[in-house]
Amino acid sequence: MDKKCAGTTKDVIDSFAVYLSEKGRSENTIKTYCGVIHSFCSWLEARNKKITTVNRENIQSYIHYLEAENRSVSTINKIFNTLNTFAKSLGLPELTDSIQRTTKRIDYVAPDFLNEVELQELLERTRSDKSKRNVAIVYTLLYTGVRVSELCALNKSDIKLNTKSQTGQVVVRAETGNERIIPLSKELVFKLNDYLTSRIDDHNALFVSNYQKRIATRTVQHMLKQEYNLHPHKLRHTFCYDLVRKGVDLSIVAQLSGHSDVNITKQYLNAIDENVG
Q1: Residue 106: per-residue pLDDT
Q2: Domain extents for the chain?
Q3: Which of 73, 138, 172, 262 yields a CA-CA distance of 20 to 30 A from 125?
Q4: Which of 18, 22, 13, 7 has its CA nearest to residue 40?
Q5: Are 204 and 178 contacting, i.e. CB atoms less than 8 angstroms apart?
Q6: Is the pLDDT assigned to residue 5 strictly greater than 50?
Q7: pLDDT (tens digit per residue) in 33-75
Q8: Is the pTM of this model over 0.70?
């Protein structure tokens, strides 16, 4: 490996940033390019490999991984171009020689969501659920579109409620470290307030188990299956689909749902077309 790739992961990325700066790249471009390399480093480290010993096979495997993750062709091309620039910065342009990439457009399968009848049946079923916690969980998943892991990680301090105006917001922290703020519907504000005012514990977690511990993802999944015969992701899909159906800009939907690629959000357009057709 070229000596330019010696040192820690941080050293490598910092060196790449200097290279880009010397090439006259903008600050935003440098941040974006270094972010791509940081993600690549994380992917390598998860497989017990290091950027300091990267080879062509690693890059090819990473491209195949991105394709398997259904990343769009344009996104993969941008990532590849960054890796190509990175290889040049190391003085090792051969690292990206003959890397195979798909040239076909990826067709996304329309997600499974609740139709209007199923949605009303679900809301009707919550009325007979005596657990205020379970009802609040259903409403939170349905009206914020958060992932189950994100829901379980929520703290009471992440929720801001104004019961007088029936408004509120939640700060969601993704596993990637990114944060997003989602406004709360009046229905959800009511259910969350109803649940929180019934709590007599002082636990920081927004949702707790029957044993007064932070609720686990498996507990939520089991509850939804047993009580509502639902998979939590169907509620997330319903949230996204409803926003797209109402004409909300795809970039805003992607931001609210925490999609890393707006092409993932575009799959809901397919769902709308299928319903109209």
Answers
A1: 46
A2: 3-96, 116-276
A3: 172
A4: 13
A5: no
A6: no
A7: 999 999 999 999 999 999 988 999 999 999 988 888 778 788 8
A8: no
Q: Distance (Å, rounded) from C-alpha 231 to C-alpha 62?
A: 30
Distance from chain centroid for Cα 1: 35
Query: Exposed/middle/buried for 129, CB within 10 Å: 0-12, 13-18, 19+?
Result: middle
Q: Is the pLDDT of residue 184 over 70?
A: yes
CATH for 3-96, options being 1.10.630.10, 2.40.10.10, 3.30.300.10, 1.10.150.130: 1.10.150.130
Length of the chain: 277
